Amino acid sequence: MLFAVIFHDHPGQGDLRAAHAQAHIDWLAAHADTVRVAGSLRETPDQVPKGGCGSWRRLTVLLFRNCWRPTPSGPVDCVKAWRF
């Protein structure tokens, strides 16, 4: 079963998102079997992303819900909220 996952960033977190973009892309590539599609949310291609969305397998969603925690300096700091 696949789930749509939507992330909403805290306002003004574009620099933090950009600083961790490559590590995030690498993580997505390493988990391509469970995260089927992922992308950033913005109204036009030249805007700073306001969040992200993706299509995840059920197991990945369960693992994410159980282990996701904000970190003081990690890329998750930019995430204000997420929902399935």
Give the low-confidence spans: 70-75
Please describe the biggest sheet, giving its number of strands, its sense, and whether it closes into a barrel: 4 strands, antiparallel
Beta-strand level of the residues, as a percent range?
25-35%
Describe the global form.
Answer: globular
Please list the strands of the largest sheet in the order they lie side by side: 2-3-1-4
**Strand tally, please?**
4
**What fold name stands as the CATH topology?**
Alpha-Beta Plaits
Overall mean pLDDT stands at: 76
Q: How many discrete domains?
A: 1
CATH architectural label: 2-Layer Sandwich
- Summarize the amount of helix as a percent range: 25-40%
* End-to-end C-alpha gap: 13 Å
Order of helices and strands: EHHEEHE
Q: How would you classify the helix and strand content by structural class?
A: alpha+beta
* Fourth CATH level, the homologous superfamily: Dimeric alpha+beta barrel
Helical segment tally? 3
Give the quaternary arrangement of the chains.
single chain
Radius of gyration: 12 Å
CATH class: Alpha Beta
Task: Describe it.
This protein is of the alpha+beta class and 84 residues long. It has one domain (2-83): 2-Layer Sandwich (Alpha-Beta Plaits), CATH 3.30.70. Helices cover 31% and strands 32% of the residues. The protein is built from 3 helices and 4 strands; from the N terminus they run E-H-H-E-E-H-E. It has helices at residues 14-19, 21-30, 58-67, and strands at residues 2-9, 35-41, 51-57, 79-83. It is globular. It starts with a strand and ends with a strand. The model is unreliable at 70-75 (pLDDT under 50).
